[in-house]
Amino acid sequence: MLLKGGQICGDYLLAWNRGILGAYVRLAGADAFRLRHHTRYGKEHLVKVKKAFGQNPIWTLLDDDAGGDAEKWKTAPSLYLFTHACDRMRPISHGGTGVAIPSYTIPVTSEQKEKLYCWERVYFYHDRIWLNCGALEIASCREMASPDSSLSKQGRELCGIIEAATKRPTYYYLQRYWARPKGEEKRKCPGCGGAWNTEWMGVPTRLFHQFEFLCKNCRLVSHLGVSTDGGRYARIGE
Fold first, then answer.
1. What global pTM score does this model have?
2. Which of 85, 113, 142, 155 is most deeply packed, by most CB within 10 A?
């Protein structure tokens, strides 16, 4: 339930040590385990844990560089939704700094946080399939790169939910790997067909969140493709 609530990230380890059952987890924020951040499902399961063990869990922060509070969405001029196969902290990021914002801090319902977690896991596995270059490589690429794929539709719906809750423009990231040999920088927004290139076009020192493509109308962001060897695959997502 802590995973589904966005309070912990990635894998976790359960281990017995001197008769004590310990769960080693990566917190999304230094205070993520606090009761006030639990979803209603988390609170229900906490009652079951207390009944089974006779007490509430005892939390010990082991990180020697835990830092302070998590990045605040309230300071963000915008947000964007993105994750990948090696990610353990997203899927919501600060549009001004690119820093991950824990989803447990977003003021949405318990059900919506679970939907966000499920979308994140599905995206994670699509990216792993694509990176492994197996039989479903192209199919998984289409899911991540096309604005009207099943994966993207779910993600864009979540962007709308997050934007409504935070009152911050929330963009959906479209993966772009294969590029056209000519005219890549002039391609149109795949959502509305309008121009969407930004001032970051061609800037060699840009950071990830400084997107070369951004459509305010469709709430879509993307980058220039990095490989011109894909041939017809450059059409994916256009």
1. 0.94
2. 155
Are 31 and 37 in contact by the 8 Å Cβ rule? The answer is yes
Tokens of 101: 């914002």
Start-to-end C-alpha separation, the chain = 38
124 and 177 share a domain?
yes
CB count within 10 Å of CB 128 equals: 14
Residue type, 59: W
With CA atoms as reference, report the closest residue to 113 among 1, 2, 9, 4.
4
Looking at the structure, do residues 103 and 181 belong to the same domain, yes or no? yes
> End of a domain among 23, 51, 70?
70
Residue 68 pLDDT exceeds 80: no
For 178, half-sphere exposure in the C-beta direction (CA atoms, 13 angstrom radius) is 18
Q: Do 167 and 108 meet the contact criterion of CB atoms below 8 Å apart? A: no
Q: pLDDT confidence of 65, banded at 50, 70, 90?
A: low
Banded pLDDT at 18 (limits 50, 70, 90): very high
| Longest Cα separation, the chain | 66
1 and 14, same domain (yes or no): yes
Q: What is the pLDDT of residue 89?
A: 80
State how far Cα 208 lies from the chain centre.
Answer: 14
**Mean pLDDT of all residues in 92-102:** 94
H or E stretch covering 230: none
119 shares its domain with 28: no
Same domain, 40 and 84: no
Q: How far apart are CA 6 and CA 121, in angstroms?
A: 12
Q: Which residue, of 13, 47, 70, is where some domain finishes? A: 70
- Residues 152 and 223 grouped into a single domain: yes
Q: Which domain holds residue 224?
A: 73-235
